[in-house]
Amino acid sequence: MLKFIIRRVLQAVLALFVLSILLFAWLRSLPGGVVSALLGERGTPETAAQLRAQLGLDDPIYVQYWRFLSRAVQGDFGISNGVYRGEPALDVFTQRFPATLELSLFAISLALILAIPLGYVAARRRGGPLDTGSVIFSLVGVAVPVFFLAYVLKYIFAVKLGWLPPSGRQTVGINATHITNMYVLDGLITREWDAAWDAFKHLILPTIALASIPFAIIFRITRAAVIDVMDEDYVRTARAKGLSNGQVMSRHVLRNSLIPVATFLGADLGALMGGAIVTEGIFAINGVGGTIYQAIIKGEPTTVVSFTTVLVIVYIVANLIVDLIYAVLDPRIRYA
User: Distance (Å, rounded) from C-alpha 196 to C-alpha 187?
Assistant: First the structure.
């Protein structure tokens, strides 16, 4: 197991190294270069030359890359000049990321809680009304775009019925203490139950919208995996040995059916973050997505680079965790 962990960590480090090269190359390929992107229309030949000297862009390319890599390792991606003027780009990320993380965690948790049991039950009752209805519902979940579902949910439950808040993360003026900037968690930690409940209500609609596609895919993966595993020889052998149906289903069928689900979770994290960007815009959640959008519009490379780098690190770490879970579920891959 230790060798497996070391191998995966080394692969993660290599992926980050490749990322640093790609980001450095992207910065150099910006139209007009980094200087033009930073100065914009305010730039003059004199200010451009001064900024090039400050950034060390006249140095050899390998020196520039080493400087970029050294600063990135220390979390220094420069100062935000367009979105949040004068603030370190990484600080902007740490302020905005909790909102995206909270939404993503709620969405993936909802998808898992609903999809795995439903997929399991549908497989056990294959061909029945529940199975047929669930499959149709999952197809709708995959086919309907996140942004369309978000607008429909917002119109029905927030605008027409008024049951839930239409936007934002918390009601303006509510007395709330923010520790982690994950508002529901903050309310639970500080025992400000009204603030936690208010933040939770603001999360319901965006969570449902964002969870729709992961739910549909996890349901279909679980259903297909359970059906396949139930036909395996080792399941028939377990039944022949006299194990109860509950023992067979929990120890052999369900555990092995979760392996492809774990694989999907690692691969889907990036797509989930992408969906969160769209959902944040519709529900006016001030998270990573909106900030990246503003940075791109205003041509601010420092914010885009810092946000991209940290998001990829989160993605790689999440995949590493999924690999470890995979190894626990299926010990054979530790030696692959």
Answer: 4
Check residue 176 and report its DSSP letter: -
| One domain, residues 6 and 152 | no
Residues 21 and 154 in one domain: no
Please, is 188 exposed, middle or buried when counting C-beta atoms within 10 Å of its C-beta (0-12, 13-18, 19+)?
middle
User: Are residues 62 and 116 part of one domain?
Assistant: no
In 3D, which of 211, 203, 196, 191 has the Cα closest to residue 265? 211
Same domain, 50 and 107: no
User: For the CA atoms of 202, 283, 173, 161, what is the dihedral angle to 10 degrees?
Assistant: -60
Mean pLDDT by 10 residues, the chain (336 residues): 72 79 71 56 62 63 74 70 67 82 88 87 79 79 82 90 87 84 89 90 91 86 80 67 65 70 70 72 80 69 73 76 69 54
Taking a C-beta distance cutoff of 8 angstroms, is the pair 175, 192 a contact?
Answer: yes
Instruction: Please indicate, yes or no, if residue 168 is contained in any of the structural domains.
Output: yes
CA 145/CA 1 separation, integer angstroms: 41
Q: Which CATH number covers residue 118?
A: 1.10.3720.10
Buried b (16+ CB within 10 A) or exposed e, 45-81: eeebeebeeebebeeeeeebbeebeeebeeeebbbbb
